[in-house]
Write a structure and sequence with these properties.
InterPro entries: Metal_Hydrolase, Pept_M19. The chain has 417 residues and is of the alpha/beta class. Helix content is 50%, strand content 10%. The structure holds zinc ion.
Length: 417
């Protein structure tokens, strides 16, 4: 009899799963939509990557006011987070890569600190609707209070310069993840997109110290933007699970910024999480468009660092990008593309290793998920494809929070020993 019990259990399970799927299949489109919106409301929704601090440092930019995304280009403010039922977000203090000398590093540090201060100031100015979050549990506590949780990250380790003590300084300011590198190499690591190619063969010797220091303090190590060697070095070295705060699957869309199946599997072994991003070029392959590409390249070639621009120059630049997009439109990326990537990562790495990091205000935003007010459309597509509430909960925040807890637990254990 003993041997039959697991069999009977399995049979019951199969029948009940079968029924659930059948029920879902019988729902009309409108009923699926309603179910998705209910799920979206119930689960904790976390977006791990927004470059909104670039906006926050603009004089007069008010996060408590709803901005028109088409007119202003802005993708995130508190009213739109509420509309989209986005419970938590990591605002990344992003500093573009520049000259790697003492002057460059101190300018980068000053700008990074300015952005962090602007995040903290914004949360305290708007404490009736948002709260600064430092620990994984804070997101749930703030959600219970009906407030959005605001976490801080840093995109690009450049403001660390070559001074390890800066890592702890940023931790003390509330930073809970650091993207080691951006679109060019820095003193820490190699980028996936540096035009000169790799320089350190992944992590530099200093970069190894930075990862260890992040482990010690309880800061999540973010490998997005790094080249493949950086990923392999980091996943091997880090004592705590790592994240890719905004990256997609390379075998679905062949882009250097995306992760190969081998990397996805290692991410699963590591216990980490890949946060899917809403950047069109990482979501679908567009046919080449010479006119568009050269117009974009010309604009970028003449561009000053954003931090050094006047308000007028910034507005003019945004308008110029919009004009090019209008004149030479690229085929849109859609929510279906996003969930194709999710399906693939789930297949290769498992449901416990995928999440969402939209990259709003940093180029993210697609048809159907143009800004923070539309993120529920991802949940609608997930429900349509048969994902359960339990699975959606993991994708939308459960997985990231698990990693965050493990990163903190490692730091705590380490501190006691
Ligand atoms: Zn980025």
């Amino acid at each position: 009899m003993k041997n039959y019990i697991p069999f009977l259990f399995l049979l019951t399970l199969l029948i009940s799963v079968g029924c659930e799927e059948q029920e879902k299949a019988e729902l009309t489109e409108e009923e699926q939509r309603e179910l998705a919106l209910e799920i979206h409301k119930r689960v904790l929704t976390v977006d791990t990557h927004a470059d909104t601090p670039l906006r926050m440092i603009e004089p007069g930019f008010d996060m408590s006011v709803r901005h028109d995304p088409k007119e202003t280009g802005s993708k995130v403010d508190y009213p739109r987070m509420k509309e989209g039922d986005l419970d938590a977000i990591f605002f990344a203090a992003f500093v573009a890569q520049d000259i790697r000398d003492d002057d460059g590093h101190s300018r980068a540090k000053a700008l990074c600190l300015q952005m962090i201060d602007s995040i903290v100031a914004s949360t305290s100015r708007n404490s009736d609707i948002v709260g600064l979050a430092l620990n994984p549990e804070d997101a749930y506590a703030l959600e219970d209070e009906g407030k959005r949780a605001i976490y801080i990250g840093i995109e690009n380790g450049y403001p660390i310069g070559n001074d390890l003590s800066n890592v702890e300084l940023y931790y003390n300011k509330g930073v809970r993840y650091i993207t080691l590198v951006h679109s060019s190499n820095n003193d820490i690591a190699d980028s996936a997109t540096d035009s000169e190619g790799p320089e350190h063969g992944g992590l530099s010797t200093f970069g190894e110290e930075v990862v260890k220091e992040m482990n010690r303090l309880g800061i999540m190590v973010d490998v997005s933007h790094g080249n493949d060697s950086l990923f392999y070095d980091t996943v091997k070295l880090s004592k705590a699970p790592i994240i890719a705060s905004h990256s997609n699957a390379r075998s679905v869309t062949d882009h250097r910024r995306n992760m190969t199946d081998e990397m996805l599997k290692l991410m699963a072994d590591n216990g980490g999480v890949v946060q899917l991003t809403m950047l069109a070029d990482y979501l679908r392959e567009a046919p080449p468009n010479v006119e568009r590409d050269s117009a974009m390249a010309a604009l970028r070639a003449n561009m000053k660092p954003i931090g050094e621009m006047t308000d007028e120059e910034r507005d003019a630049l945004r308008q110029a990008f919009r004009d090019i997009n209008e004149k030479y439109p690229a085929p849109p990326a859609t929510v279906e593309h996003v969930v194709d990537h999710i399906d693939h990562i789930v297949k290769v790495a498992g449901i416990d290793h995928v999440g969402i990091g939209c990259d709003f205000d940093g180029g993210g935003g697609i048809q159907g998920v143009f800004d923070a007010s539309e993120v529920m459309n991802i949940t609608i597509e997930l429900v349509k494809r048969g994902y359960s509430e339990e699975q959606i909960e993991k994708i939308w925040g459960g997985n990231l929070i698990r990693v965050f807890k493990e990163v903190q637990a490692y730091a705590k254990e380490n501190a006691q020993s």
